[in-house]
Amino acid sequence: MKKIAICGKGGVGKSFLTYVLTNAFLDQGFKVIVVDGDESNFSLHKYFGFPSAPQPLVDFLGGKPALKEVLRKSFQSNNEPTLEEVNPFNQKTFKLSDFPEEYILRKGNMALVSIGKIRKSLEGCACPYGFLTKKFLEKIALGDGEVLLLDTEAGVEHFGRGIEKEVDAVIVVAEPYLDSIEVAKRAYNLAKELSKRTFFVLNKVAYELREKVLELCKANGLEVDAVFPYSSKVYEASILGKVGLVDEVLVPAKELASRILLPT
């Protein structure tokens, strides 16, 4: 499993899971590329201890207006939008090292890139970012011992954009309440429609609710692959703008990483 998308309802902990899974894969000797594909959340870089985010990849392509023009021309011509005029997107595949370093943040064996963010009122929809995310996933070639984790936008719209078509596996995250689980069920089924290996994860589960939540998931046809418990230590750290990497979350993260790596 090389390329893995992490999705779910807003606020369920996709970015946090991206962070703890990154650490789990690093502990197993992998190199990890983290792709921030959420145009609304500005905090993923903070999880990894970076004071600021990398320059977004959309700027490498001339900014959002340039991408909007690419999409406009494709709609008018009824052709598939393409970035074939832009290096390295004009190559069949590329490596992360083909991009200038200002678009990449590195720490040890992990690297972080960001697609782009909504920064101004009335700047338009996030379609260009979805298009760029899909093209980036389609073109990037991973070497032996490399894993890519995509932190997606909230909800399921990215399935409609075909982003998950370009990954090997999908992790669906839910909190222990009905609305979140219903969104997760929809995302889970959409991933299965694409014939992707799909993993369902519960996050922030209080010990006394664990069995009831597992029953609810079973009633919705969801097989739970990992349960991350509610941890006051994690919340206490987050209040201070830090990340609490405690055994309560590291243990299930390592177990999930190992499960993902099992051959099909």
Number of beta strands: 8
**Residue runs with pLDDT of under 50 for 5 or more positions:** none
Q: Please identify which CATH superfamily we are dealing with.
A: P-loop containing nucleotide triphosphate hydrolases
How many DSSP helices?
10
CATH architecture assignment: 3-Layer(aba) Sandwich
Question: Helical amount among residues, as a percent range?
Answer: 25-40%
Structural class: alpha/beta
- Supply Rg: 18 Å
Strand order of the largest sheet: 3-4-2-5-1-6-7-8
Q: How much of the sequence is in beta strands?
A: 15-25%
Query: What is the subunit organization of this protein?
Result: single chain
**Overall 3D form:** globular
Q: Give the distance, in angstroms, between the N- and C-terminal Cα atoms.
A: 9 Å
Number of domains: 1
At the first level of CATH, the class is Alpha Beta
Average per-residue pLDDT, rounded, comes to 91
The succession of helices and strands, N to C, reads EHEHHHEEHEHEHEHEHH
Structure, explained:
- This protein is an alpha/beta fold.
- The chain has one domain: Rossmann fold (3-Layer(aba) Sandwich), CATH 3.40.50.
- It is 39% helix and 18% strand.
- It is built from 10 helices and 8 strands.
- It has an 8-stranded mixed beta sheet with strand order 3-4-2-5-1-6-7-8, sandwiched between helices.
- Helix 8 links the parallel strand 7 and strand 8.
- The longest helix is centred in the C-terminal third of the chain and has 16 residues.
- The radius of gyration is 18 Å and the shape is globular.
- It starts with a strand and ends with a helix.
- The model has no long low-confidence stretch (mean pLDDT 91).
